[in-house]
Write a structure and sequence with these properties.
The chain has 463 residues and is α/β, with parallel strands linked by helices. The chain contains 15 helices and 13 strands. The chain has helices at 17-32, 44-51, 61-73, 95-107, 114-135, 149-168, 186-195, 212-218, 243-253, 290-293, 309-315, 346-355, 357-380, 404-416, 444-454, and strands spanning 9-10, 14-15, 142-146, 177-181, 198-202, 225-231, 256-260, 285-288, 301-305, 385-388, 394-398, 424-427, 430-436. Strands 3-9-8-7-6-4-5 form a 7-stranded mixed sheet, sandwiched between helices. Bound molecules: pyridoxal-5'-phosphate. The site of pyridoxal-5'-phosphate has 13 residues, from helix 6.
Length: 463
Amino acid sequence: MLESAPRRVTTVWGDEHDAVDAAVRWAMQRVVRPSNPKATARPAAEIAAAAGDTITPEGIGAEGALQVFTEILEPATRAQDDPMNLAYVPAAPTRAAIAFDLVTSSANIFGGLWEAGAGAIWAENQALRWIADLLGWGPEAMGCFVSGGTTGNLSALAAARHRALTARGSRPPEGWQIAASAGAHSSIAAAARILDVDVIDVPEDERGHLTGAALREVVTDTSRVFAVVASAGTTNAGLIDDLHGIADFCDEHRIWMHVDGAYGGAGLVSPTLRPQYDGIERADSFIVDPHKWLFAPYDCCALVYRQGASATAAHAQHASYLDQVDRDAANPADLAIHLSRRVRGLSLWFSLATHGTDRYAAAVDRTVAIAREVAEGIAETPHLELLKAPELTVMLFERPGWTAEDYRHWSDDLAKAGVMLCVPTQWQGRPVLRLVFVNPETDPQQVLTVLRETLTPSHYVSG
Ligand SMILES: Cc1ncc(COP(=O)(O)O)c(C=O)c1O
């Protein structure tokens, strides 16, 4: 493959041509072949026994290291992009996006400051502008790509607290608070712990949404509250909160509204789904993980602020060695918790530029259609019960009579056989099954066949 490329021999590392050739060949093969649904985690001791010593004074050579990776390490990882992986929130990157991640790595651009990464940051900003347009945000909107929803949520909440601190002049003696429902992702509680703020737990309505009415009822004293977190696609059930109601509450009390769309924000791309997000234009910050349902590889979260300047005050780092460069430019480092960063948004930009936004809308719509077909099929199956029809592409259902243990056995068996990945969760205090669709290549009839044939009335009933 690299025969025509000039050989570069460096003093310390010598000729790495064979290492480069082997790695690039491997990547070429991997990006086009389907992933192995049977690949799965193994205990560390087993991996160690199979791989042997890999870090040695002399090195084991590129061929040896790649062999260990191919035969032992990669098979001990889950295939996130398998179309029958419907657990947690899987992934479905385009091949264009994955391939461009290789390009991004090869170019090894420092993406923290405009001065070092201007061209690449410009392209990332194009992708962020597309997202800001979908949100209905104006030219003051600014953002950057961070590693994932967890860092995105933390960064947005840190910016929110900074704005409140600036407005109030000091920390409330009893400390700060945020308000969120139990449906908010676990990263919100983690962010609160890191920021040392309390979380007011606001009850969801009977359908599982956080509403403005519930906020009004529970959050009667807002003197310590600096942010409300709304979800645009909860992880467990895929629900979009009452965004207008939440925005009304936040406007009234001058509280920052953050929308976590890590999974479900992708639905903004679809003109058909867009009305479900009405009110999102009133939020102060938003995240979406393109590595979930926007067809990009890990790790990629788009964090956008409606008023970019509100975030730079919170996040910009200053030091004599940094302030030598032009700090007036829009630096991604000034918008989140990071300084050095890879330009991870480039893979999304390349895929968007390659395929066009219409194809993205069609891919999202196709995924929604798949989820609905499976939901209808479950509803029509006598021994299954659909509990939560998908608002987006998450659905909850049960096999009445089955226990948590039955579900676990069933889930493990199917995973081991490489048939399907579906893991149980809890809904309203009871064990249920959950499916998450992000892959437009999933065959809904294949999913239904597996469910109907394996969730049989007799199989695994405990006791
Ligand atoms: C709604 C939501 N927010 C945040 C996260 C955390 O994202 P990440 O795993 O990229 O940190 C997730 C992950 O599933 C999520 O579904």
